[in-house]
Amino acid sequence: MFDQIQHLKKTMYAEKGKIDRIVQGGDISGLDIYEKRGQWEELLNLAEKQGPNILNEYLMRFSRVYLKNLKFQETANILTRYGCPVFKEILAVYKTIAVKVLPAVHDGEL
User: Fold this and answer.
1) Phi-psi region of 63 (alpha: psi -120 to 50; beta: other; left: phi over 0)
2) Most buried of 4, 51, 68, 76, CB within 10 angstroms?
3) DSSP for residue 105
C-alpha cells in the first residue's frame, strides 16, 4: 500500500513538473526523469545537493551524451562549473576534451 501511494505521489509530481520534490523526498529516481527529458541543468543542480557520489554519476551520464553529440566545449564548461571532479571513470572524458578542444584554442586564449 505504501509503495502504491509513493508511486502515485511520484507520478503526480512528475506530471506537474515538480520533479525536485521527488528528489527532496529522498527518491533520486527523480533525477532519471530529468535525464530522460534532457534537463541537465536541473538534474545536475539537484544531484549536487545529493552529494559527490550522486553528482559524479550524473556528470558521467551527462558527459557521455554530450561527447557523443560532439559538444566538447559544453562538456568542459559543465565539468568546470562542478569543480572538475577527479575519479577514475571521468579521466577518459578529460582526455577526449583535451584532444578535441585544446588544438582549436588559439595561443592567446591559453
Assistant:
1) alpha
2) 76
3) S
Rounded CA gap, 58 and 54, in Å? 6
**What are the grid coordinates assigned to 108, written together?**
592567446
Cell of 9: 505521489
Residue 9: helix, strand or coil by DSSP?
Answer: helix
The model's pLDDT over 46-101, given as tens digits with 9 standing for 90+, comes to: 999 999 999 999 999 999 999 999 999 999 999 999 999 999 999 999 999 999 88
Picking from 45, 44, 94, 102, the residue whose alpha carbon sits closest to that of residue 67 is 94
Amino acid at 13: Y
CA 25-83-44 angle, 5° bins: 30
User: How many angstroms separate the CA atoms of 54 and 48, rounded?
Assistant: 7
Smallest CA-to-CA distance from 25 within 53, 5, 52 is with 5
CA distances from 95 to 48, 49, 72, 73, 77 (A): 23, 27, 11, 13, 15
